[in-house]
Design brief:
Layout (H helix, E strand, L loop, with lengths): L1 H19 L19 E3 L5 E3 L11 E5 L6 H16 L3 E5 L4 H9 L5 E5 H9 L13 E16 L14 E3 L6 H12 L8 E3 L3 H9 L5 E6 L4 H7 L5 E2 L4 H10 L4 E5 L10 E13 L4 H12 L2 H7 L8 H4 L9 H9 L8
Parallel strand pairs: 3-4, 3-5, 7-8, 7-9
Antiparallel strand pairs: 1-2, 5-12, 6-9, 6-10, 6-12, 11-12
Helix pairs in contact: 2-9, 5-8, 6-7, 9-12
């Protein structure tokens, strides 16, 4: 397994070099403490563009950041954040395609990565040693860096007769890769409607494969858990009439009774050119780090990200959702001391180990 991960890391490094190569120059080193935010300057044609605020701490190193599949928000936004941190500070980050939350925690546990994107619920499962981590036990040698944005449970279909979760009974549906965060989200949602995995004809596919299967008529619906808009669904919507199945208030309340980390949310109709808005639930996309990553590097991650919200927003939709108060809102896993230092400079106290 380690050999496979090492090969994946090598391939991902090449992909990341292609991604970061467009930054066009040497990474500036850090120097000084955090500034107040992104400035602006005049780009070609007189257009105002956000400039990169540089600084942070000296002595940064090179880190691997596991994200998600190449058609998911984790990889898209993770790559943008990694590049910005490298431009703004002395820390260099390589964003890597991965299998998502559980795979990211496992890669960090084995020392193959130092940072990772995770769903807030999966992070809690790992820290408590429950559900998909029951066999290996609690994993506690990681800390929270920041909560970045909400990621919605999106039940995607091309079948206009599927209007509620109950309509999925007997249908062919993708519920995520086995043991993935998506899988457990799907099981939770089905349970709120008194349904189980056996109530549908399940397949176990990632975002990209699910979209292809919907396109080819192999499945009737797919659970996708990612920040909307999600590339896999957006691509599908260019050729098909995409719908998202809504959850009603009664069943959302039932879901939240057993799983309080779900929040009710609405995905606007224009996200995928739908006929109407979709009501669903969401978990939190969170960045975590191994405990042994230096305080300087984690401080620099925070600096490069939150001092450059304007330029990140210009590069990716999720940049506009960055908010320091929200970033400090996680309660399931204590924060890394390097992140806590940055928060403290902004007048925010977070718990550490």
């Amino acid at each position: 397994m380690k050999k496979k991960l090492s090969l994946a890391l090598s391939l991902a490094m090449l992909m990341s070099l292609a991604l970061t190569g467009c930054s066009g120059g040497q990474q500036p080193s850090g120097g000084g403490t955090s500034g107040s935010g992104a400035g602006s300057g005049s780009g070609s044609g007189g257009q105002t563009v956000a400039q990169t605020v540089t600084g942070g701490k000296e002595g940064g190193s090179s880190l691997y950041f596991t994200t998600g599949g190449d058609q998911g928000t984790y990889y898209g936004f993770g790559g943008v954040v990694a590049q910005k941190v490298g431009e703004a500070t002395s820390t260099t980050i390589t964003a890597i395609v991965s299998g998502g939350s559980q795979a990211n925690i496992e890669a960090m546990e084995m020392g193959d990565a130092q940072l990772g994107f995770v769903q807030s619920d999966v992070m809690a499962y790992a820290y408590q040693g429950i559900r998909n981590f029951e066999d290996v036990g609690a994993i506690t040698d990681f800390s929270t860096v920041a909560a970045l944005y909400m990621e919605q449970v999106q039940i995607v279909t091309l079948d206009p007769s599927i209007k509620t979760v109950a309509d999925l009974a007997g249908k062919n549906g993708s519920i995520g890769a086995p043991g993935s965060g998506v899988y457990y989200n799907a099981i939770d949602v089905l349970a709120a409607y008194d349904m189980t995995e056996e109530s549908i004809n399940p397949t176990y596919e990632d975002f990209g494969t699910s979209a292809e299967s919907l396109q080819d008529g192999k499945i009737d619906a797919a659970f996708v858990v990612a920040g909307a808009p999600t590339v896999a669904i957006t691509s599908l919507a260019t050729t098909k009439d995409v719908s998202l199945v809504s959850l009603d208030s009664e069943h959302i309340a039932k879901l939240q009774e057993s799983s309080p980390y779900y929040s009710e949310t609405v995905i606007p109709a224009d996200t995928y050119g739908m006929a109407s808005d979709a009501t669903t639930v969401a978990v939190v996309a969170t960045v975590i780090a191994r405990d042994d990553v230096s305080n300087e590097d984690i401080y620099n991650f925070m600096f490069g990200t939150f001092e450059n919200v304007a330029s990140l927003s210009a590069a990716h939709d999720k940049g506009a959702e960055l908010d320091l108060e929200f970033a400090a809102s996680n309660t399931a896993v204590p924060y890394h001391p390097g992140a806590a230092e940055y928060f403290a400079e902004k007048g925010i106290e977070v718990p550490t180990k």
